[in-house]
Design goal:
503 residues, 3 helices, two-stranded antiparallel sheet
């Protein structure tokens, strides 16, 4: 029935496209199909799960599954200055099932069989849903020539995506309203970092005064009941300039996340607002070297947990500095490139009683970052948690070892192209925390909660079989450091094979 509904939707879309064709200058239909096979082990650094644990247990044992994303996009130019884009997609794990926890909660571990068919599991009813990813209209020369207005569901990416780049979504997931927390229902994807839905419902205005570009944006992130004052909105301004020499560019920006959702989990009515001010720039001092840097400061108010007595002022910092060298690219047939990057997110000193903590909160808020340099570590606190530092319910930052604050990160990167159709990439990541993590049981291993978080190696190969078909493989290993206890430091493994077809 779900498949029939998908066919009906596509048929109607094609009919509508055909019916309005005469009223447009051009219509382009494109899309892609991406299929992945995923193998993972010890994603919570614990390795083997606890014996007999069956209720809501998201463990780090070996797991393997397949997923796919199918996208269809229609671009229509109505006039020289008016165009629209609509993209629909289906993303899913192959034949995934949901755990029927209500059916197995009262069943003793030794009881067999468990009710509800296959051991308390049922098919995922959302598996074949067609979802809207993009739906926007672009108005060029709106009112007067330098202004372009884009309205609707669209992608937003500023600079390198350090502050605003992706609004990652996994429809169907059982989020509890707290970042990084989920219940047994995992949504359509068990690897949410591969979601194809990164768009924002937004209005964007761009003034193009070459070489100056001024962009203003408003986005509705979260809307509850109309009469409820618990929305999340994003406002921002970005001013960029491109220089005539050294391929240099510079940007200054302000982004404001007005977050009233903290009122749902807090007895106080103050918002969890974030003002982010930053500067970014890059240039080539010589043709074969690119240097880039970005720094940002956050102010506003912080509400971190249900029990917090009053809001606190924010004062946080982040920094991203990188360099790329292409000196050997033209000298060797394999076109080697090397680079290095340093990323810093400020942290907050550990607080034994967060409800009564006072003073400025200095932990970094991740905003809507779209750039990630590692396959495993940088999604801790977003979608995954370790066995050593489990989810903290009712806190805005649900994992004390989250990767988006209280962290120094150093990345070494390299790439080769042995043949024209084959690209090999590798990076080596090192992570340290600024302040020690406050453990649930600090008396046991407080001495190991500060210092080296771990190291990660990611290897990637992409083979362009044709212009439209490519194959890829990603292998990643995260080796936990001294912040994890002796029995919770197994190496996490991620192996992903990909086939992608574009049309």
């Amino acid at each position: 029935m779900k498949f029939l509904r998908v066919l009906c939707v596509l048929a109607i879309a094609l009919c509508l496209t055909a019916s309005v064709y005469a009223e447009t200058q051009s219509v382009k239909v494109s899309g892609d199909l991406t299929m992945r096979g995923i193998f993972r082990n010890a994603y919570d650094y614990q390795g083997s799960p606890n014996e007999g644990a069956i209720l809501g247990n998201i463990d780090g044992s070996e797991q393997s599954w397949f997923m796919s994303v199918a996208e269809v996009e229609v671009d229509a130019d109505l006039t020289d200055n008016v165009s629209t884009v609509i993209r629909v997609l289906n993303q899913r794990d192959w034949n995934v099932t949901d755990r029927g926890i209500q059916n197995i909660a009262a069943v003793p571990l030794a009881t067999s069989p468990v009710p509800n068919g296959r051991g308390g599991y049922a098919p995922n009813g959302d598996e074949f849903d067609v979802m809207l990813d993009l739906a926007y209209v672009t108005l060029k020369d709106f009112i007067y020539s330098p202004l372009t207005l884009t309205i609707g569901r669209q992608d937003l990416w500023f600079g390198k995506g350090f502050i605003v780049g992706a609004n990652q979504q996994n429809p169907g997931a059982g989020w509890l309203g707290v970042q990084g927390t989920r219940n047994v229902a995992a949504g359509n994807l068990n690897a949410p970092e591969y979601t194809a839905i990164n768009s924002f419902d937004a209005v964007k205005a761009v003034l193009d005064y070459d070489p100056w570009t001024i962009t203003g944006v408003y986005s509705k992130i979260y809307e509850d009941a109309i009469q409820a004052n618990d929305d999340v909105d994003l406002w921002g301004t970005n001013v960029g300039y491109k220089f005539d020499a050294y391929k240099a560019e510079a940007e200054a920006y302000w982004f404001f996340k007005k977050d009233n959702s903290a009122g749902e989990i807090s007895p106080i009515k103050h918002g969890n607002d974030v003002h982010t001010f930053g500067l970014r720039g890059s240039f080539d001092p010589i043709d074969v070297i690119t240097l880039a840097a970005e720094g940002a400061w956050q102010g506003g108010q912080f509400v971190g947990s249900r029990t917090q007595l009053e809001s606190r002022d924010r004062s946080a910092w982040a920094l991203d500095v990188s360099a790329e060298c292409r000196y050997m690219t033209d000298k060797f047939a394999w076109k080697p490139k090397v680079g290095a990057e340093y990323i810093y997110y400020s942290g907050n000193e550990p607080e034994s009683n967060e409800a009564r903590a006072v003073g400025d909160y200095t932990g970094w808020d991740p905003m809507y970052r779209g750039k990630f340099d590692s396959a495993i570590r940088e999604f801790v606190g977003r979608f995954y948690n370790s066995a050593r530092y489990p989810v903290r319910v009712d806190r805005m930052q649900s994992n004390v070892d989250a990767s988006f604050n209280n962290q120094h990160q150093v990345v070494f990167l390299g790439s080769l192209q042995p043949i024209e159709s084959l690209t090999l990439k590798a990076n080596y990541n090192l992570f340290w925390n600024q302040f020690q993590y406050l453990s649930n049981n600090p008396a046991v291993d407080a001495s190991k909660s500060g210092g080296f978080i771990g190291q990660e190696v990611d290897l990637q190969a992409t083979w362009d079989y044709t212009e439209d078909v490519s194959f890829g493989i990603l292998a990643g290993w995260f080796m936990p450091g001294e912040v994890y206890t002796d029995h919770l430091h197994d190496t996490a493994t991620d192996l992903v094979g990909t086939v992608k077809v574009s049309f």
